[in-house]
Amino acid sequence: MVSERIKNPINLFSFLLWSMAALFIFVIALVWICIDYGFDWFAVIICAIPSTLFFIIIPCKIDIIDRPREVEVIESGIILYLRMGRKKMFVPWSGITAVNHAPFNSDTNRSNEQNSFLRIKGEIRYTVTGKIAEVIRDKYRTQLGQYPLNQRI
Questions:
Q1: Is the pLDDT of residue 12 over 70?
Q2: What is the H or E stretch that residue 64 is in?
């Protein structure tokens, strides 16, 4: 049985981009409140709440919580090694319902700059690199005879 274990690093560009958006929300809200009511520490707290929620909901969820540390591709399916102390998870090929992946030109080697998404059992979504998504798609095709759905998630 041949297995391929691939590291799935955090996409720093995406993480920093969404983090900057959260910081932008904080600054705009603080300026808006300060123009209308003047500076107050309560205004800083009020501005920090939505920007922190935005930060936790988007960049942390996409790039830390929903991104496995490693993905192992084996004959019977894939094994996801999850972050934050969660157990590893085995997914058979029939459990994969979609792989959201935009094909890329391998000459430019930009596979780690894009996020691809792996949908399992119709509900659960995990973030993987473009290289991992291509390996999963190709192995899925060799095992089941067709590519998985490539839909926007």
A1: yes
A2: none
**Domains defined for the chain, CATH in brackets:** 8-65 (no CATH), 69-144 (2.30.29.30)
Give the amino acid at 93.
W
pLDDT digits (tens, 9 = 90+) for 73-129: 999 999 999 988 888 999 999 999 988 877 666 555 554 567 888 999 878 889 898
Task: Of 127, 129, 137, 133, give the one whose Cα is nearest residue 113.
Answer: 129
| Cα distances (angstroms) measured from residue 78 to each of 47, 106, 138 | 42, 23, 13
Q: What gap in Å lies between CA 8 and CA 139, rounded to an integer?
A: 17
- What SS3 class is residue 73? strand
DSSP state of 113: G
- DSSP class of 1: -
